């Protein structure tokens, strides 16, 4: 009898108190959640993360397709006198750069290949920050040093890491970027690790990626550049000659990529970096 009464007291007094505390916790939690969506909170998170530069420094001696030729950096001069500006005489100095747009780590906009494709100044700003996924093909390269990533390879990757997120940037890790400054001749090898056309089509059409990138100077090694031609002719853009993809996990990072804005620009050195999870 005493037990029954105790149970009744418990349920009549403690249960409402329990519900009240759950309700308070919910409201407090909700307010905290609302605060977390501010840009200041997002910046606090982002600035606490590790950043990885995905860009090579470029110079007049770095690898480039022989059809384009090397860059030239010279002291900018007054066009009237031809005299180069110096800090001693003029208080400033600057370089006059002479280089092809597709130099060093660079962006290829659709218009690089497509007559009516988007140019550099037309690519939406929101595409300059994207979730980043990395396909590591270094193990595959032990068997075939110029393997082209297949749809099957991507499905095996997905079995381990989950579906390639729609709206992401997909990068191909081959580690050939490690030859960029130490062994430029090897860096320029042909054939090289690449994307198969089927893999590129699958990623854009079935998975909805926004852009792709790789460490080599071209997307693929087919005689008519099938993968590169397809993606640029379908309104997509890519970053070539990427660095440090070995320092980024398969999923969970963001890529930030930016480039100058020449009107109707057909390509330019780009600056890309990853924010690690
Ligand atoms: Zn290119």
Record the SSE blueprint.
Layout: H1 2-36, H2 39-47, E1 51-53, E2 72-75, H3 87-90, E3 95-98, E4 106-108, E5 129-136, H4 138-143, E6 148-149, H5 151-161, E7 169-173, H6 179-182, H7 184-187, E8 194-195, H8 197-206, E9 211-214, H9 226-233, E10 237-240, E11 253-258, E12 268-269, E13 271-275
Parallel strand pairs: 5-7, 6-8, 7-9, 9-10
Antiparallel strand pairs: 1-13, 2-3, 4-10, 4-12, 5-11, 11-13
The chain binds zinc ion.
Bound molecules: zinc ion
Report the average pLDDT across residues.
Answer: 92
Structural class category: alpha/beta
The poorly predicted ranges are: none
Note the main sheet. Answer: 9 strands, mixed
Strand order of the largest sheet: 1-13-11-5-7-9-10-4-12
CATH topology of the largest domain, by name, is: Glucose Oxidase, domain 1
Order of helices and strands: HHEEHEEEHEHEHHEHEHEEEE
CATH top level label of the largest domain: Alpha Beta
* Global shape: globular
- The second-level CATH architecture of the largest domain is 3-Layer(bba) Sandwich
Written account of the structure:
This protein has helices spanning 2-36, 39-47, 87-90, 138-143, 151-161, 179-182, 184-187, 197-206, 226-233, and strands at 51-53, 72-75, 95-98, 106-108, 129-136, 148-149, 169-173, 194-195, 211-214, 237-240, 253-258, 268-269, 271-275. The model has no long low-confidence stretch (mean pLDDT 92). It is built from nine helices and 13 strands. Helix 9 (226-233) links the parallel strand 9 (211-214) and strand 10. 33% of the residues lie in helices and 19% in strands. It is α/β, with parallel strands linked by helices and 277 residues long. The strands form three sheets. It has a nine-stranded mixed β-sheet with strand order 1-13-11-5-7-9-10-4-12, covered by helices on one side. It is globular and about 65 Å long. Helix 8 packs parallel to helix 9 (226-233). It folds into two domains: 51-58 and 102-275, Glucose Oxidase, domain 1; 71-100, no CATH class. The chain binds zinc ion.
């Amino acid at each position: 009898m005493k037990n029954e009464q105790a149970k009744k007291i418990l349920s009549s007094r403690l249960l409402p108190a329990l519900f009240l505390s759950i309700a308070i916790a919910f409201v407090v939690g909700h307010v905290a959640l609302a605060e977390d969506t501010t840009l200041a909170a997002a910046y606090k998170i982002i600035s606490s993360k590790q950043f990885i530069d995905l860009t090579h420094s470029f110079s007049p001696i770095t690898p480039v397709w022989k059809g384009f030729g090397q860059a030239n950096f010279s002291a900018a001069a007054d066009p009237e006198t031809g005299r180069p500006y110096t800090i001693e005489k003029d208080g400033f100095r600057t370089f006059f750069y002479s280089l092809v747009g597709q130099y060093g780590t660079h962006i290829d906009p659709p218009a690089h290949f497509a007559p009516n494709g988007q140019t550099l100044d037309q690519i939406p700003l929101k595409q300059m920050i994207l979730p980043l996924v990395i396909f590591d093909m270094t193990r595959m390269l032990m068997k075939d040093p110029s393997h082209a990533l297949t749809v099957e390879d991507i499905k095996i990757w997905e079995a381990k890491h989950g579906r390639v997120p729609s709206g992401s940037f997909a990068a191909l890790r081959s580690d050939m970027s490690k030859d960029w400054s130490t062994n430029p001749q090897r860096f320029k090898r042909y054939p090289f690790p690449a994307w198969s056309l089927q893999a590129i089509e699958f990623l854009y059409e079935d998975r909805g990626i926004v852009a792709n990138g790789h460490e080599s100077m071209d997307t693929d090694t087919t005689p008519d550049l099938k993968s590169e031609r397809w993606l640029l002719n379908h309104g997509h853009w890519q970053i070539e000659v990427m660095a440090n993809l070995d320092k980024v996990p398969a999923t969970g990072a963001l890529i930030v990529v930016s480039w100058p804005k020449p009107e109707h620009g057909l390509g330019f050195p780009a600056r890309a970096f990853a924010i690690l999870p």
